[in-house]
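Q: Protein A?
A:
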Amino acid sequence: MKAYLKVNTFTKVINFFSDLGVSNQVIESHISQLKTITLNAGEALLVQGSEQRYGYFITSGILRACHFNERGSERCKEFYFSGELCFLYSSWLQGISAQYQIEAIDEAKVIRVPLHILSLPEYLPAKISLLQQQLIFKEQKEALLLLNNPEQRYQHLVQYWPHWVKKLNNIQIASYIGISPVSLSRLKTRIKD
């Protein structure tokens, strides 16, 4: 009964890795290494400058990766939503300290996944799929930011990622598309009119 409850608790993460080509049997053999975590808004999972040992599969809420400079100002790298595995690929691949902090922007529930399991041969299909997805996403983000003006960037979010526009505030959206919150507010007013 206890094993069944464990599997049931981690069904979403089992399905996630299964969809990436890892057998359920292999995933279930690592269930004892998974841990559920509930976070409050602003709570950090990974502190900038620390060693990254875990990824976080989001079952509810929103996480973000942001960098804080010595003056305390922040730059948001990315937002992560339910059903996504959140971790810093560069830190993971190079084995270096995290350049970004991963934190909850609202109440969130995650499943902590040790990243060392992605180096196991049985997880190779998942590792390759995750790297492919990340490469495509980064290329798309680069094109979005380099080839479009702010209005086109915002319209892209509205068209392709409407859940971002619904769930993130103006400060967060503006930071992501590289404009000030005031400029975003003006842009939204102009589009509405």
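Q: Protein B?
A:
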Amino acid sequence: MEMQQMIKRSADVMMSILLLFIFSIPMGILYVVLAFHFKENPVFKSVRAKYQGNGFVMYKFRTMRSALDSNNEPRPDSERVTELGQLIRRWSLDELPQLLNVLKGDMSLIGPRPLPLEYNELYTIEERKRLEMKPGMTGWAQVNGRNNVNWKAKFQLDVMYVTKYSLLFDLKISLLTIMVVFKKEGISQDGHVSAERYKK
């Protein structure tokens, strides 16, 4: 298992460098476009749980307006996502800055998706197993429905990934991720911009 983890980390570093090189120009263009579009920092930062539940700052391209409008009134999520933001989400381009998280070692290319720290207190003993590996940009739950899958099913898929992990499993998920992105399915849950917040 230790050898597999070493190979996985080496693959993460090499692939993240390669993908950052390939997408450097598109990411630069998107950064400028979003800066003008939202008139604020185009990179959104949020604290998420990584390996063993410790916190780290995760990067994403901004796809939503500020939570408060010009009158300091809260905006519903449905009004915060712009048409450009929806397009970026449809093609998963908002996730590209997480390649930097992978390079830093906070994330892996493949693993359970990183969730807010407050979720750590809501997991069952079995569900906490999803924190036994680094979170990923994509994972077994993402290629099996993305946000159309309820939380309990997502956690079961995450735990399955952790307990049955292998390099071949990662390769399978990588190939399925490409198919999922081009199908553009499961981007949002019915009635929500992405997915409803998890409540135990």
